[in-house]
Amino acid sequence: MTYPWQTMRIYWRRLRTLTIGGILAATTASCASAPLQMFRSQPNFDRAILAIQIEPTTEPGQYAVSGVADLPRGVELTVMAIRYLHLNQSPLKAGDPPPTYSILAYDTVEVDGDRWETQLSLWKVAPDGAFKETWQLHEPDLKLAVEPDDDVVFLATLSPLDDLEIIERQLARDNRRFASRFIQTTAEGSRYLQAGQSLTIELPTGATTPTEPPPEDLNGGWGNRYLPLPDLPNTRQLDFPEQRQTNAPVSRGELLY
Prior knowledge:
- This protein has 3 helices and 12 strands.
- The protein is an alpha+beta fold.
């Protein structure tokens, strides 16, 4: 004889067995499909090009910088040359100070037909006529002892203000993308493109004819405005007429009373 409570227990055991079996079957099916999704082949992308090349010119301190970039026509690149400077002693804290750098020259160029080029002049003329780099001109004012690096780094950068994602989507249509070494990230998290090349360049030597300082360097930026301007020379010779040049009658205003 089977009691009602025994019948209910049998039903619960069968229901639990069916439920566990369904869960195991679903889990097995999902596990079987997971490797197919995980190891599904990814599309192969071609590497987009962002190259930079430096060649010295015949002018002292001037370099021709060119390169190739898989970027849309008209996109602007910022090209600059920097030299790292190592502080001999940090005025803020003890220990080895981190290196800083000086921007020697920069220019903005447009990509035209996947190519770009410009020229950078790394030398400046000091007030005494000596050739110097930018940081050397301001070194006495900063009163910092620095050791310049032997190499100058040339960089070609796509500004973080430009939307890199739009360019990446355009390249993806052609099955291309930039390698990760070209993509940099700012402290704020903005992504940008950058390619660089270093070249060993000695410090400037020699001198030339001194140039007059620009007005912004005089009188606190006001120039020589306190000096009166010289009178302009009169290039026209005006002769007083010997005879009256009109036959109109004399007006009352011309008469003396």
